[in-house]
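Ops channel
N.P.: pipeline sanity check, posting one input/output pair.
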């Protein structure tokens, strides 16, 4: 009976437990589709357990109600097997427990997987949001001009295109054949030619709208377009054109940004801002067009003739636009789905370009061959409504319309200009105006200009001339505020009225002044004398002077009144009345006008130098802040480099910019905080602007007393370091070779602008006469030649013995030499043919270079030999080190100075410099040297090695001028063209840029008036113009020959000179000295000798000195208050 009672207690307890837990364990909300079948199986097992428990309970109840004697007897005989029944229940329970544990474990795994999926989806959503944000920033940085907005602006200025005017184009056989994409014979290029004023731009607008409007055509091509306008670089520069086309393509096909992002992620906005932008993004544009998800594409260029490039390339159109068309029409992978439509004036250069690009697949519609009288008459009829609104009588309108049709000729612009004149007059004057209006467009411009200069307009015309001249000479269209600042009209004369009077030549869009038509600005440029008798140089100089005056009067600290110094450039918002709105153009482009005016002269006028010097001393930091706010800070470095040789202050300013420009670009007001705090104590910029520091940082001391000679260190961006460097002939880009790539850097900023994927490249070099770069590829065993103006691979040279260890360009151009362990080979660059090849034997490395005469130089056993440039035969000249017995003294490299005076031989243990004229040793240095380089002007020699600092020698005196304390072993050295810096590659893989400008200054004072080591305080020209005297802040007086630029002499004065005065014959110079007011000096202007020290009764400041040229000689006279 005990087993029965225990069993009943156990069963009751388990029934209670399972009744409470079943719903929770097997509730549907704890399940999901993958575990649904398992849950059903558990439900069945649970039901079986309940049946066992209930059966045990029922059986025990029945046993209780039986005869108790009989129950006891059955119990004693164990006939009911209560233990067995209970064991069956517990076994069912154990089985269910096991299944439940497995179920819960699987449910936990499933829940964890669901959680992981949710987290993964959340992460992907975050990444997508981040990518979307970065995509938007990439598009923002890429953006230059929205062509869709340009269409709206054109329509706003000239009205909607009239379909009846351009409809005939759509119906021509040539246009229909061009648009037939299914026909394999369909031309890939359509050119529409027409003279100025024939309505090409409005026709382009109409065609674009017509093609975009047919939304029912599922096979309609993607249409991208650009309206080229000769009104500034944003509208006619090839890089701007390509950026805008790419932006429009991405705006219409966002998924294509995947082709751009990897390049953008690597370099950031610099991808679109560097001088090589076009060459950098053209291959990316091609890959976008190659995308299989992109269908057919029609590219439209309006006014191709207005594109601008170097004057010597394709008639001023530039090679870049040719390269763009070449990519579109001749690249095999995209040409089948690309068509190009261009409109242009008939130019021979464009016709030649088209024939070269698409000799058998182009058609031309000549507007000059078609009668335009019908479309022009339609355009005239469209003017009727405007004339009717102005006229008092309908008869005047009808007569005017008839006269317009009779005189219009073949240009729409003629009709537009004449109708504009009519709308300014009473209708009674229309007849006479139409009779006087010349039928030719150029004569019409003269007629309109004569009307503008009529006596009734005489007061206005002077300001109109200024407006027309600045529009003609400006590098971009000026805003109305910038124009008003430049013109500075009296308060009673409105700039809007001035521009309105010029509306036959100018038009205003979005508060910006544009030429009304290219033909108008062409006429003004051709007939400039009508507006001013000054030369173009003089006109640019006037703009420069006005620009300096405007900046001097407007630039100040915190131009946008920002709340704190940490405001980033992205957060900086211009207040509505900021004076920067009026001087933005002049802050950016004043240097361009300076180049066009005075930099062409041999010697600058003293007033120009003094004005520039004063501007930089007062407003340098204000100007940097303004450029940062305008997002054009790189202009500052270009400007400083252009003027570096003229103003000593800019030597320090360049170092200041090189170090702090990233900070200034990011946060404009940091121009006055972190830059001045961390600039060296002896920095001229810091010293000059110390009062601009916030008061709360005045006690912070700089970490350095002077600028470090190390300007910048560039670390490798891959797994392997840089071990070879080269700088372009212009000095604007630097390339560094590693085992993975050849990286291209902006020399001024140090930013990476391009990466050429290649394997080990121990040899890279630039051609001295052309923009070519040679890169040796160890994997392919060939020398690859790149055109760096377009960054295009142009040629590959493969040595006959399949090996190349070094290569070099001829200094005479047109040839390149390669060296292997077996052969020396000279190649002709134009054809890639071998000129000659000579057997070669090298035991200790291979090198090749050229002599100034163009002979090939290479090592042969222990010595260096010259091979004739034409025949390859050995030349008698042989170079050896001092100890030929020692194998370590074998010649490893030979370097010539650019002037051909010296040659530097390097072995493992020595550098030996020979005078090529006398054969004498000029220098012999012992050490473990690995690299030698002459400066481009041959005045400096740099030597670097494994255990010593870089040494710089003066080639005039062979004195050691400077040592650069490098912390690493040098393996390559190169001087850029400006002689201001030295570039080194080290064993650790870093590339360093060192300042050697101070070396040039110490060594090169005499003979170069544009390099002055100290500040110029005074400049005075002699009356005869044969001498220039300058006083400097180092207490010295210098005299220059303005014709040759040579320093005639210098004189130590002991104190500062406060005033200078020449005698009438230029033979004598009076110097008024600081702290010696009663003792001025008279010096001999030719020799600098002191002729006399004058003792005065009163300070010179109270006297007015002057020289008198009398029959008895030159007299110096002093007088006070009009009394002598």
């Amino acid at each position: 009976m005990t087993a029965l009672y225990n069993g009943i207690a156990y069963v009751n307890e388990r029934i209670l437990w399972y009744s409470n837990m079943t719903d929770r364990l097997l509730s549907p909300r704890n399940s999901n589709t993958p575990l649904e079948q398992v849950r059903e199986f558990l439900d069945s097992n649970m039901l079986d357990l309940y049946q066992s428990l209930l059966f045990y309970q029922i059986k025990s109840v029945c046993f209780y109600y039986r005869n108790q004697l009989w129950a006891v007897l059955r119990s004693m005989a164990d006939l009911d097997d209560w233990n067995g029944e209970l064991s069956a229940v517990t076994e069912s329970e154990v089985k269910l427990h096991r299944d439940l544990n497995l179920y819960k474990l699987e449910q936990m795994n499933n829940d964890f997987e669901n959680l992981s999926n949710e987290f993964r989806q959340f992460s992907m959503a975050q990444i997508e949001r981040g990518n979307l944000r970065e995509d938007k920033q990439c598009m923002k940085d890429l953006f230059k001009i929205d062509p869709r907005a340009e269409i709206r602006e054109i329509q706003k200025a000239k009205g909607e295109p009239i379909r009846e005017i351009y409809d005939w184009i759509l119906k021509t056989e040539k246009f229909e054949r061009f648009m037939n994409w299914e026909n394999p014979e369909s031309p890939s290029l359509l050119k529409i030619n027409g003279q100025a004023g024939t309505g090409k731009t409005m026709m382009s607008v109409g065609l674009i709208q017509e093609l975009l409007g047919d939304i029912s055509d599922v096979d309609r091509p993607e249409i991208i377009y650009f309206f080229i306008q000769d009104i500034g670089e944003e509208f006619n520069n090839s890089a701007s054109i390509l950026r805008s086309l790419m932006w429009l393509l991405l705006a219409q096909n966002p998924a294509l940004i995947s082709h751009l992002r990897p390049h953008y992620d690597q370099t950031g906005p610099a991808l679109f801002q560097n001088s090589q932008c076009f060459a950098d993004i053209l291959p990316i544009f091609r890959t976008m067009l190659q995308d299989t998800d992109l269908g057919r594409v029609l590219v439209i260029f309006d006014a191709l003739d207005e594109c601008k490039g170097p004057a010597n390339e394709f008639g001023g159109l530039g090679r870049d636009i040719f390269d763009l068309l070449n990519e579109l029409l001749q690249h095999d992978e995209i040409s089948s789905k690309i068509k190009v439509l261009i409109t242009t004036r008939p130019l021979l250069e464009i016709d030649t370009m088209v024939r070269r690009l698409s000799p058998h697949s182009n058609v031309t519609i000549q507007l000059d061959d078609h009668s335009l009288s019908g479309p022009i008459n339609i355009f005239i009829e469209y003017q009727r409504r405007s004339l009717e609104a102005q006229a008092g009588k309908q008869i005047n309108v009808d007569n005017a319309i008839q006269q317009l049709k009779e005189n219009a000729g073949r240009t729409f612009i003629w009709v537009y200009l004449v109708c504009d004149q009519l709308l300014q007059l009473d209708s009674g004057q229309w007849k006479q105006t139409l009779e006087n209006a010349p039928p030719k467009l150029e004569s019409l411009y003269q007629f309109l200009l004569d009307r503008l200069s009529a006596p009734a307009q005489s007061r206005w015309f002077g300001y109109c001339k200024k407006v027309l001249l600045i529009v003609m000479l400006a590098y971009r269209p000026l805003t109305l505020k910038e124009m008003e600042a430049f013109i500075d009209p009296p308060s009673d004369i409105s700039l809007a009225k001035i521009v309105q009077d010029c509306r036959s030549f100018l038009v205003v869009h979005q508060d910006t002044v544009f030429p009304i038509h290219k033909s108008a600005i062409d006429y003004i440029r051709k007939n400039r004398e009508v507006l001013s008798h000054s030369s173009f140089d003089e006109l640019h100089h006037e703009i420069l002077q006005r620009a300096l005056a405007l900046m001097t009067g407007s630039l100040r600290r915190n131009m946008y009144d920002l709340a704190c110094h940490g405001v980033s450039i992205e957060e900086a918002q211009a207040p509505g009345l900021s004076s920067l709105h009026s001087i933005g153009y002049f802050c950016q482009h004043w240097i361009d006008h300076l180049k066009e005016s005075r930099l062409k002269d041999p010697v600058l006028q003293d007033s120009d130098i003094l004005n520039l010097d004063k501007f930089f001393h007062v407003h340098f930091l204000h100007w940097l802040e303004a450029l940062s706010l305008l997002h054009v800070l790189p202009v500052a470095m270009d400007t400083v480099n252009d003027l570096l040789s003229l103003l000593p202050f800019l030597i320090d300013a360049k170092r200041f910019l090189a170090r702090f420009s990233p900070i200034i670009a990011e946060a404009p007001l940091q121009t006055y905080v972190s830059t001045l705090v961390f600039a060296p104590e002896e920095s001229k910029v810091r010293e000059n602007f110390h009062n601009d520091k916030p008061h709360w940082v005045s006690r912070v001391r700089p970490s350095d007393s002077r600028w470090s000679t190390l300007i910048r260190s560039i670390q490798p961006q891959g797994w392997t370091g840089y071990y070879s460097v080269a700088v372009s002939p212009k000095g604007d880009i630097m390339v560094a070779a590693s085992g993975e790539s050849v990286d291209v850097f902006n020399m001024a900023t140090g930013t990476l602008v391009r990466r050429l994927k290649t394997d080990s490249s121990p040899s890279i070099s630039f051609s001295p006469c052309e923009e070519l770069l040679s890169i040796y590829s160890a994997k392919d065993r060939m020398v690859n030649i790149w055109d760096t103006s377009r960054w295009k691979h142009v040629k590959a040279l493969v040595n006959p013995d399949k090996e190349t260890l070094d290569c070099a360009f001829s200094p005479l151009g047109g040839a390149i030499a390669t060296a292997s362990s077996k052969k020396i080979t000279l190649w002709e660059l134009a054809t890639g043919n071998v000129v000659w090849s000579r057997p070669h034997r090298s035991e200790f490395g291979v090198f090749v270079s050229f002599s100034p005469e163009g002979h090939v130089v290479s090592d042969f056993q222990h010595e260096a030999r010259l091979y004739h440039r034409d025949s390859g035969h050995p030349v008698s000249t042989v170079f050896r080190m001092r100890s030929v017995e020692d194998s370590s003294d074998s010649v490893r490299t030979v370097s010539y100075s650019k002037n051909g005076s010296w040659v530097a031989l390097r072995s493992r243990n020595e550098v030996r410099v020979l005078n090529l004229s006398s054969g004498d040793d000029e220098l012999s240095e012992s050490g473990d040297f690995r690299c030698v380089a002459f400066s481009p002007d041959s005045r400096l020699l740099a030597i670097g090695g494994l255990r010593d600092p870089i040494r710089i020698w003066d080639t005039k005196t062979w004195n050691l001028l400077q040592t650069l304390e490098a912390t690493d072993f040098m393996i390559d050295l190169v001087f850029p063209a400006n002689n201001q810096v030295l570039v080194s590659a080290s064993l650790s893989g870093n590339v360093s840029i060192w300042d050697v400008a101070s070396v040039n200054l110490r060594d090169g004072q005499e003979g170069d008036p544009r390099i002055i080591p100290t500040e110029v305080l005074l400049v005075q020209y002699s009356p005869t113009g044969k001498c220039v005297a300058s006083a400097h802040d180092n207490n010295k007086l210098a005299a220059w020959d303005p014709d040759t630029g040579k320093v005639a002499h210098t004189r130590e004065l002991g104190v500062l000179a406060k005033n200078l005065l020449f005698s009438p014959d230029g033979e004598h110079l009076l110097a008024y000295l600081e702290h010696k007011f009663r003792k001025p000096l008279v010096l001999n202007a030719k020799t600098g000798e002191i002729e006399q020290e004058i003792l005065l009764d009163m300070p010179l400041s109270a006297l007015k000195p002057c020289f008198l040229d009398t029959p008895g000689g030159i007299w110096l006279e002093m007088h006070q208050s009009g009394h002598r």
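N.P.: looks fine end to end. Confidence is low (pLDDT under 50) at residues 1001-1013.
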